[in-house]
Amino acid sequence: MDRLEKDLADQVQVLRLSVSGEIGRVAAARYGVRAVPTFVVFDSAGNAVAQTVGLPDSKQLRALLLSLAEEPAQ
Questions:
Q1: Mean per-residue pLDDT for 7-18?
Q2: pTM score, whole prediction
C-alpha cells in the first residue's frame, strides 16, 4: 500500500485512519468497518464507491483509483 500511495500521490489523496483514535472510531462506525484493515474508496464527490476488508489486490485497487482520478469533479 505504501508503494501504491507513493506512485499515485499526484493523482489521488490517501487518508489513513486508526480505529483506536476518536476520528477513526467515528469513521469506522459511519462506514460499518468491522475488521482491520478495511479500505474505503471515495469518488471526487465524497461518495463511498468501494469497500474492501483485508488486503486488496493492488492492481485492481490501482485501476479503480486511476479511473476515479480521471472522472470530472461533480
A1: 92
A2: 0.82
